[in-house]
Specification:
Strand content: 15-25%
Shape: flat
Structural class: alpha+beta
Helix content: 40-55%
């Protein structure tokens, strides 16, 4: 026998199921029912056990059910599956789907049956509703316009009421429900959309007029409209509301003089409710088609036009531009680091960011322009009738400025950025396909160089083909020995000594020679290979460090870290393991993360950096000054240093604005108890100026160029960097 505790555990599991699990004896009396029996039927389990299952089957289906049951328990079949109706405690019947099979004892004798019962009432109701919906559509919507259907209904009512009948449908489909069945006493009349209107009160749309002589009006001249209004002004009239069968939403009115309504009710009392039902179906069908068309042509998340609608509007703009000899601009906008937001903060935050971006894009343009979401984090802007390249350039700059404004998404402040590719008609193509492709090429070129916007140039095509080939080869290169590390020394401006090195990855391509990171890091980001590449660089740099320490060289090692890897849950464990085997001194490993990547998800970055900081890893904010950092985040960040971007260092000795920016950044960092590293130093004058400004460390060709590991160790040994 089954142990009691196992029986209890099995019962607990079965009681958690949403479908009924049952057992019966050979004559159909219930011997077991789980808790779902009560949830579905309302009958208690204890009161049901011992009764026969046929007590609950609908009378019309008992005979068929008995035959199926006998077929199972008489060994004719081992299994049956059918649908029937079961009575519930409140006296109604619900459709259920039953699957049953025989129960046998150890000798093989049938001792009953067992199975499951699933409530299918809602599913069948939905199926029946769909059937009825299709049937009604066949009756009232065989390629017939709404106005014709409503006109025929109005004419039929006018025949029996011996008065004119109109159908006025609401212009606002979201109109609130009326508190009373007695509508306002003023009829409002508008002509069809775009037509002549005559207003008397709040707006509705006059869809059709039916007359006793058989005439039906579905298009309205001013004469017809004013004649109709005059007719109803001379008499007391009634509005009969047309309401949705679901929820009672007000859809419109049948309007007729009150004497005619009385005659109609006496002659054909069923005609009004039937007519109302058919009118409601026809109106809702039109509205549903409008909604379906809108959904087919718009993005559900942002409400913006989708690719199909954008291409249609693009073609309209091109046709008009050809006639009027105008230009059309196309801007392709792709958010930077959006995948990081989705991966680290979740799709809910990502969706909020996309909705915000959609609003910012729409607020940047004219009414004649089109903003569309093409998918993911990619948007398109169609600018018809613009004044050539200058205006397109101005709009692209304006869009970028608006997109870069900080946004609060679920309490997290994000600093979005984007890359924009621009193409123009007729310079860059004569059709939508060509312009999209060339804007896409320009956009990816911008993304590779780090953001901003740019116009398409013919030579971009060759670059794009080269990039596609490189992307296909990159996976192989990561797994082979083609990726190599060079190291650039970091020098203290206080002592003049080398205090560390930064690892810089290179690709020794078998045919293209030595490729710098700008050629392949963006490809790794876009193809999902960046984590694999970053981990490979980190492991190789730590291995080289082991060799240096074996020779007595004690310096810090800086490794660039992708934002994707920063939020990898396995990173902490990987680095902790590597530190134990290579860097014995606390703080000898520095990870550099770009300011823009940090600001894409500041809260997540702060948490990850603090976790690694506790393991002895130091952090540097790279490219400082290019990512719109927020002081509220920087002051909370446990970073050791900031690295000022070389764009501010290159002309430091000759540009007063750069000098002011660098001086301010140094003061800010020191006040936050961070060191300052300046990269890209290429002259003694710049080095001396940085020292005077209080900069702590420098990197650049003036001090040492990046060099392979094989050349670095001999160079370091000459610098007297041996351990004490």
């Amino acid at each position: 026998m089954e142990p009691a505790d196992q029986i209890i555990r099995r019962a607990d599991v079965l009681d958690k199921l949403s479908e009924i699990v049952f057992e019966t004896d050979p004559v159909g009396n219930w011997t077991y029912l789980n808790k779902a029996w009560t949830d579905i039927t309302g009958f208690g389990v204890e009161e049901t056990l011992g009764s026969n299952f046929l007590d609950h089957v609908h009378p019309d289906e008992r005979e068929e059910t008995v035959l199926l049951f006998l077929g199972v328990v008489s060994e004719g079949i081992d299994y049956c599956h059918h649908e029937t109706r079961y009575r519930t405690a409140d006296g109604v019947y619900r459709w259920v789907e039953i699957r049953a099979s025989v129960l046998r004892d150890q000798a093989g004798k049938i001792i009953g049956n067992a199975g499951t019962i699933v409530d299918t009432t809602e599913r069948r109701a939905a199926q029946e509703l769909l059937f009825e919906h299709n049937r009604i559509l066949e009756l009232v919507a065989q390629d017939v316009s709404l106005e014709e259907i409503l006109g025929a209904l109005a004419q039929l009512m006018s025949l029996y009421g011996e008065e004119e009948v109109s159908v006025a449908t609401l212009a606002d489909r979201e109109a609130p429900l009326l508190n009373s069945e007695s509508p306002p006493t003023t009829l409002v009349v508008e002509g069809p959309r775009g037509g002549t209107s005559a207003h008397v009160g709040a707006p509705t749309v006059l869809a059709a007029i039916g007359r006793p002589d058989g005439a039906i009006e579905t298009s309205f001249s001013p004469r017809v409209l004013h004649s109709f209004i005059d007719c109803f002004r001379q008499k007391s009239f009634a509005k009969v509301p047309i309401r949705s069968n679901k929820g009672g939403r007000l859809l419109g009115f049948f309007v007729m003089p009150r004497p005619g309504l009385k005659r109609l009710e006496q002659a054909q009392p069923d005609l009004i409710p039937r007519g109302l039902d058919l009118a409601a179906i026809a109106i809702e069908r039109r509205q549903a088609n409008d909604v379906a068309l809108h959904r087919a042509l718009h993005d559900p998340l942002t409400g913006l036009p989708n690719r199909a609608l954008m291409e249609g509007r693009m073609q309209q703009a091109l046709d008009s531009a050809q006639r009027l000899k105008e230009s059309v601009g196309l801007l392709l906008v792709d958010l930077d680091n959006f995948k990081v937001v989705n991966d680290t903060l979740g799709h809910e935050v990502g969706d909020q960011l996309l909705q915000h971006v959609a609003g910012q894009l729409g607020g940047s343009l004219r009414k004649a322009d089109t903003v569309a979401r093409l998918g993911g984090d990619e948007f398109a802007l169609v600018l018809p009738g613009i004044d050539g390249m200058a205006e397109a350039d101005r709009v692209a700059g304006k869009v970028l400025h608006r997109l870069r404004e900080p946004v609060d998404c679920s309490g997290i402040v994000l600093n979005p950025d984007a890359s924009i590719g621009v193409s123009l008609f007729p310079q860059h193509g004569s059709d939508a396909t060509a312009l999209l492709r060339r804007a896409d090429i320009a956009m990816y070129r911008v993304k590779r160089r780090g953001g901003g916007h740019a116009f398409y140039e013919p030579y971009h095509d060759e670059e794009r083909l080269s990039a596609l080939e490189l992307a296909a080869e990159l996976g192989r290169a990561i797994d082979s020995e083609e990726l190599v590390l060079h190291y650039q020394p970091k020098v203290s401006l206080v002592t003049g000594k080398v205090v560390g090195v930064e690892s810089l990855v290179r690709w020794r391509h078998p045919h293209r020679g030595l490729l710098l990171p700008g050629r392949f890091i963006p490809l790794a980001e876009n193809t999902g290979l960046i984590k694999q590449l970053s981990l490979g660089v980190l492991e190789r740099a730590l291995a080289d460090n082991v060799l240096w320490r074996a020779e007595g060289v004690d310096i810090t090692l800086a490794v660039n870290l992708s934002a994707h890897l920063l939020h990898d849950s396995n990173l902490h464990a990987k680095i902790d393991e590597s530190l134990r085997s290579s860097l014995s001194a606390h703080g000898r490993l520095e990870l550099e993360i770009t300011e823009s990547a940090f600001m894409a998800n500041p809260e997540g970055a702060i948490e990850a950096i603090r976790r690694l900081d506790s393991a002895g890893v130091a952090f540097t904010i790279d490219d400082f000054g290019t990512g719109y950092s927020s002081l509220s985040y920087l002051k909370r960040l446990p970073a050791r240093s900031i690295k000022i971007d070389q764009s501010f260092i290159r002309d430091l000795a000759t540009d007063e604005r750069d000098a002011f920016i660098v001086s301010s950044a140094i003061d800010l960092a020191h006040n936050l108890r961070m060191d300052v590293i300046a990269e890209g130093v290429e002259s003694a004058a710049v080095g001396e100026l940085l020292r005077d400004l209080g900069c702590d460390f420098v990197q650049g060709y003036f001090y040492a160029a990046p060099m392979p590991a094989s050349e670095l160790l001999p160079w370091l040994l000459k610098q007297d960097l041996r351990l004490a």
